[in-house]
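From the methods appendix. Each design record in this collection lists the tokenized structure first, followed by the designed amino acid sequence. Records were kept in a plain field format so they could be parsed without special tools. The example shown here is representative of the layout used throughout.

RECORD:
FOLD TOKENS (249 positions):
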């Protein structure tokens, strides 16, 4: 009887080990991609070039968490390189009148001052950090507000993952406005996120086609921020909170 119990225990440990190994291998192989988060119908929408927009209500918050998926005709590295050109953002993101680098927190993290024209000027400052994962095949930016006059909380991320001959953006954002902005319609917040992500995709594809010299400079800047072969920019501790987030950066 004791031998039987011992055999069952060993078998359970071995099975658990095999399963854990399979999960780890799946993550290392990049199986858990943004594309795999979508249903078959949503994947067809992405392949057509349209956006998939998902929302998640937050208790006590007037605006939801918003996640937007969209295909890009560019590599994941090129996509992040364009987005990480912070002072260019004001030229293509609607209602943004200023995007100015305030300084560097570290090699991969940039502090940026923004001004938006939303029924009056809205000023805020974010720390934005670039990183790479999936053995350098995928890229991302994470940002969080460090100061703002009309928002209690703001954070988000943009993941850029290879998809066929191009890539896909997974744009995730959450804003908790102050009481003065709480009356804004939920639909308005969602439309702002959709339009911003769409304009970013247009900018990336336009630069790849028409402005290769600019894109080359942006790629050089991104690679310098990430550091050649630096694992300090690799994320090894992902967790889920309505989207993938990195705890180790």
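DESIGN:
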């Amino acid at each position: 009887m004791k031998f039987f119990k011992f055999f069952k225990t060993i078998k359970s440990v071995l099975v658990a080990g095999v399963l854990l190994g399979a999960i780890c291998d799946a993550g290392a192989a990049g199986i858990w991609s943004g594309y795999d988060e979508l249903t078959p119908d949503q994947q067809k929408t992405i392949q057509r070039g349209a956006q998939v927009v998902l929302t998640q209500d937050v208790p006590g918050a007037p605006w939801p968490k918003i996640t937007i998926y969209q295909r890009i005709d560019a590599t994941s590295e090129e996509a992040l390189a364009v987005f990480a050109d912070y002072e260019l953002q004001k030229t293509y993101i609607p209602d943004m009148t200023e995007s100015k680098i305030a300084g560097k927190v570290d090699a991969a993290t940039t502090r940026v001052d923004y001004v938006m024209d939303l029924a009056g000027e809205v000023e805020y400052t974010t720390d934005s950090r670039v990183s790479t994962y999936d053995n350098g095949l995928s890229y991302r930016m994470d940002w969080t507000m460090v100061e703002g006059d009309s928002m209690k909380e703001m954070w988000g991320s943009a993941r850029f993952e290879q998809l066929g001959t191009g890539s896909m953006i997974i744009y995730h954002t959450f804003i908790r406005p102050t009481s003065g902005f709480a009356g804004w319609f939920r639909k308005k917040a969602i439309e702002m996120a959709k339009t911003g992500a769409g304009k970013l995709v247009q900018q990336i594809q336009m630069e790849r086609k028409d402005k290769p010299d600019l894109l080359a400079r942006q790629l050089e800047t991104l690679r310098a921020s990430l550091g050649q072969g630096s694992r300090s920019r690799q994320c090894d501790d992902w967790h889920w909170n309505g989207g993938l987030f990195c705890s180790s950066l």
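APPENDIX NOTE: The longest helix spans residues 2-28.
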